[in-house]
Write a sequence for this structure.
């Protein structure tokens, strides 16, 4: 079941659909995005949906999972998140990883780690 949940989560993130992402989290899920002063903490699907919507509000925002490994309790995803910079057409890109814990087919915890300084493509 963990593998299916992880595959569904990958597809939802890559689709850019905040509703599809949020529905995979449990009602008591904890989502921690980033580290330090720039971190975002969200609890439950509604708060997670809001965070995801903001991420995909950036021009040309894309999320691509580059590696996905399942474990007994969930898995680890390596990913790239990118968006266009203003009218230049250039892209900013962040590479990171998420540690995901799954129970009963729902994500109960996700911690994402990355360097908050984007690379300019």
């Amino acid at each position: 079941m963990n593998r299916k949940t992880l595959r569904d989560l990958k597809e939802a993130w890559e689709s850019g659909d905040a509703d599809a992402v949020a529905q995979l989290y449990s009602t008591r899920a904890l989502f921690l995005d980033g580290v330090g002063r720039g971190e975002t903490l969200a609890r439950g699907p509604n708060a997670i949906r809001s965070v995801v919507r903001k991420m995909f509000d950036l021009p040309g925002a894309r999320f691509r999972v580059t590696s996905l490994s399942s474990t007994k309790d969930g898995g680890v995803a390596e990913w790239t998140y990118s968006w266009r910079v203003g009218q230049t057409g250039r892209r900013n890109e962040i590479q990171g990883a998420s540690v995901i814990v799954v129970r009963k087919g729902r994500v109960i915890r996700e911690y994402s780690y990355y360097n908050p300084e984007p690379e300019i493509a």
About this structure: The CA atoms of residues 19 and 53 lie 9 Å apart. The longest helix spans residues 2-15. The chain has a mean pLDDT of 90. Strands lie at 25-33, 40-43, 62-70, 74-84, 91-103, 106-114, 119-120.
